[in-house]
Amino acid sequence: MITGIDALAFAGPAGYLDMSDLACARGVDPAKYLNGLGQRRMAIATPCEDTVTMAVDAGARALAGFDVDPAEIGTLIVGTETGVDHSKPVAVYVHELLKLDQRCRTFETKHACYGAMAGLTASMDWIASGRARGRKALVIASDIARYGLNTPGEPTQGAGAVAMIVSEKPRLLGIDPSRIGDYTRQVMDFWRPLYSKYAFADGHYSIQCYLDALVGARADAVGECVDLLDSLAACLYHVPFVKMAFKAHQRQLEIEHGGVVSRDHNESWQVLKDSYQRLVAPWLSLNADIGNIYTGSLFLTLIDLLRQQASALAGREVSLFSYGSGCGATFCIGRIIDGAERWRGALDPSAQLQARRRLSIDEYEALVHASETSDSLEALDPASFGLHGGVYYTGTRDHCRQYTHA
Ligand SMILES: CC(C)(COP(=O)(O)OP(=O)(O)OC[C@H]1O[C@@H](n2cnc3c(N)ncnc32)[C@H](O)[C@@H]1OP(=O)(O)O)[C@@H](O)C(=O)NCCC(=O)NCCS
Predict the structure, then answer these.
(1) Domain of 334: which CATH number?
(2) Per the structure, how many domains does the chain have?
(3) If you count Cβ atoms within 10 Å of the first and of the last residue's Cβ in the chain, which end, N or C, has fewer?
(4) Is residue 388 flagged as an active site residue?
């Protein structure tokens, strides 16, 4: 049985910050953010848009866009590293707001940016075991990446959710269970202590940990294979910032070439640039426009690929690499399902992104400060942030978070 991804949908905040505006405000050459990191914009959440509301929005879009009845969902998993409670899972709010069945198993997974891949593979195992009894799983990646004002991580923020429905007859991507490889190692590259709203990161070390994990997980998935890239139509990576995907692809080529690929070796550098343009770069435009969405960022590249090339690449194989700091990783191989292009309209978030509002630096900084206290405020008004037509966080009363259709 080949299980996999049956439906995909993205949802994110209504506002964004242009990276050139941020660079000017911080006195940084805009080329550093635009070219050095590869980012154009980053989505910024208001206090009324949180991990729950984005997950509900993405989940509702996946169910409606792919004609799935909520009663068909037998497992709901929300992967997040920016939950709203130390104990109560985001998933149980989402369960209620999406009106899922009470017999649906529901939980949250946390392992930095790896939580949704953990949910995806756990759902595949749930189906393969026979426990699903024909039902589907809804796996939602939802996060707000916050590093704080004036930190090195500030240009690698973002916010958004990707919902995936997992089934035994996937309409978008089948995943080969015999080529899934894993990697785990205890490292302090990125973490968020219980007392902090902001993540702590040893940024350059985290890049090294990511690349080590790629080597380990790939070896576990496909062994010593040295011509994998020749057989693939695309390589999809976890994308905390777009340039990271270039570094990851460089490491994959080094594995296959058995040596260093660098600017100093003209021939190998040209091979890398060509391979990157063919297999990686075309699917990074959503990440460049939305920024880092932690658990969902790998799956954003899959949405980008399917909205552009599902027809041309039908039947072809792609690799997927998920990395979560701390650290855990999975490398696997999927195959694009024939007919996936029929669902382009349901998964393409272009209209949502075009409707977003560009924030000024002052508005962005005011939102950052407002979000610091919003968890304990009694009443928040979505309209005061220009929000309407969705489910929003409207404050915490008697220590209980309130979610309202507005
Ligand atoms: C990613 C991160 C480490 C970058 O930190 P930084 O020290 O401010 O940035 P760097 O000096 O490394 O510059 C980033 C890139 O821009 C390039 N750059 C710098 N100035 C530039 C300019 N004026 N024009 C063009 N490129 C420029 C650098 O050469 C570098 O590219 P390279 O890595 O290919 O050499 C930081 O944003 C961070 O900590 N992010 C959070 C953690 C994270 O995302 N980790 C990823 C793994 S999970």
Answers:
(1) 3.40.47.10
(2) 1
(3) N
(4) no
